[in-house]
Amino acid sequence: MAGPRPVVMSGPSGAGKSTLLKKLLKEFEGVFGFSVSHTTRSPRPGEENGKDYHYVTREVMKAAIANGEFIENAEFSGNMYGTSKAAVQAVQAKNMICILDIDMQGVKNIKRTDLNPIYVSIQPPSMEILEKRLRDRKTESEESLQKRLHAAKVDMEISKEPGLFDVVIINDDLDVAYGKLKDAVLEVIFFQKIRNVIATFYLTIASLYLAFLTLYARL
Ligand SMILES: Nc1nc2c(ncn2[C@@H]2O[C@H](COP(=O)(O)OP(=O)(O)O)[C@@H](O)[C@H]2O)c(=O)[nH]1
Ligand SMILES: Nc1ncnc2c1ncn2[C@@H]1O[C@H](COP(=O)(O)OP(=O)(O)O)[C@@H](O)[C@H]1O
Asked: Mind telling me which residue stretches traverse the membrane in this protein (predicted)?
């Protein structure tokens, strides 16, 4: 796929993916753009339709998947989640680096596409800390929390698979983890800046050439 390499962030629910990627989107406004997924789960207080997720019914999501509108989709903790082609294209059309926040099934499915992202795994320091963070976040019912903890155990095991992720970050101290995330995506930022400089250079040359032609035609 053309354009800068996207960044895939994955890891157990509660590991800190949203917290870290929001920091990145804020510090590098205009450089990174978030791929807004579709989900059948209900919005949490403070979440916005079209910004955090596109909140849809199972019927709508299934129809869109059948229509070939999704790059990948998965069932997580009793809900459907998926990345639409339009979500990624919307970011890439703005010449921004696309960031995807997806689960392990999503990672495995994206690996079968031509998206070619950098794969970053965000992991909690321990299951105990993960559980505490999820409880303190106060977004889950006991049932949903248990499902997430179960999925987390599986995720933490699979993440050890060599070569699955380019970088694995243990999110213990937030600032340290954020520093590591920035290091991981630095290469993409660097090439994005070079691309922009080249694009500006060619645009300037083209404008000068047009101006010259207009002037020449008048003489
Ligand atoms: N495969 C896939 N997973 C997604 C997508 N969007 C979100 N997820 C994952 O779904 C899981 C649950 O997300 P969410 O309900 O927002 O809970 P949270 O991660 O605990 O904040 C997380 O692991 C997300 O990374 C998507 O488009 N595709
Ligand atoms: N390094 C950290 N130390 C302490 N709390 C954290 C840290 N990173 C994230 N949190 C908190 O843990 C909870 C889960 O983080 P969140 O970003 O929602 O995880 P995810 O998006 O992976 O589900 C949130 O309440 C967040 O404020």
From this structure: 197-217
45 contacts 189 by C-beta, under 8 angstroms:
no
Residue nearest to atom 2 of ligand 2 (CA): 174
Whether 174 lines ligand 2, by a CB cut-off of 6 Å, is yes
Question: Does ligand 2 have an atom closer than 6 angstroms to the CB of 139?
Answer: no
Ligand nearest to the CA of 17: 2
- Output the CA 77–ligand 1 centroid distance in Å: 9
- Per-residue pLDDT reduced to its tens digit, 104-145: 999 999 999 999 999 999 999 999 999 999 999 999 999 999
Tell me how far apart the alpha carbons of residues 123 and 130 are, in angstroms, rounded to a whole number.
9
DSSP letter for each residue of 166-199 = SEEEE-SSHHHHHHHHHHHHHHHHHHHHHHHHHH
Domain boundaries, the chain: 7-217
ipTM of the prediction:
0.98
135 catalytic? Reply is no
Tens of pLDDT, residue by residue over 42-83, are 999 999 999 999 999 999 999 999 999 999 999 999 999 999
Distance 211 CA to ligand 1 centre (A): 50
Q: Angle at which helices 17-27 and 174-218 pack, to 10 degrees?
A: 40
Which distant-in-sequence residues (6+ apart) come within 8 Å of 76 by Cβ?
13, 103, 105, 151
9, containing H or E segment: strand 7-10
- Closest ligand 1 atom to residue 82 Cα is 27
